[in-house]
Amino acid sequence: MLTAISKLFVVKAVTTNVAGIALTHDEAIQLSQTCSVLKLALDSQLHAIHELPAVPFPQITSQIRHIQLKHLDTQTQLSSVILKTQNSTQPWTHEFADAQKALENKIVSINRCSRKVGLVATALQSWPVVAETCVWLLPIVVRLQSELDMALERKETWSADIRLQAPGGSGLSTDRKQQEPTAIYTDGPRVSFGTEVTVREYRTAEAASGGGGGEEEEEEEET
Questions:
Q1: pLDDT tens digit string along 6-58?
Q2: The domain spanning residue 50 has which CATH number?
Q3: How many structural domains is the chain composed of?
Q4: CA-wise closest residue to 218 among 199, 206, 196, 201
Q5: Rounded to two decimals, what is the model's pTM?
Q6: In terms of Cα–Cα distance, which of 69, 40, 64 is closest to 51?
């Protein structure tokens, strides 16, 4: 009898407002980790772009490919941050989506230009322009991570009495294991590089599922 009654209730994790987003303690930790990974990706990409002009010509193609991979890492983590902050009540958090759109547009331009004047000439001229957006994005990432970390340090924020919720609610277990940052894309175009430095646009049907059964449409950007 007691077992049957206990099944009528599920534990609901305490949430608090951070940067205009209602987050559980686990979600705040995960988002802070994602910000940390995104910051490292941005730093690494900026460093690789800064080194590009000094790279000897025989190695420059390899360096460009390295920059491309760093950019894809940046876009992956940025998409995860956007997924978590898209419903924030704080206007400044919407700059994450603005930055992603700016980066996507610049990569489309790079690929178009590469077809006309070549990979190396385009890279030397265009990747510093991409770096400008990365420099703009970096302090926004730092701000979000700072607000998350300050909230996590305030233990009283997360020590409220655990509330009970009837079946059908979205209860979360308080002993859920800490998860690593995940590569989740928003439901919109994302950019990747093909062998010939062309751009492909994908639309993921089930962004929140992280892949799975979602179908993808692939179309190559027209020159």
A1: 555 555 678 889 999 999 999 999 999 999 999 999 999 999 999 999 999 88
A2: 1.20.120
A3: 1
A4: 201
A5: 0.68
A6: 64
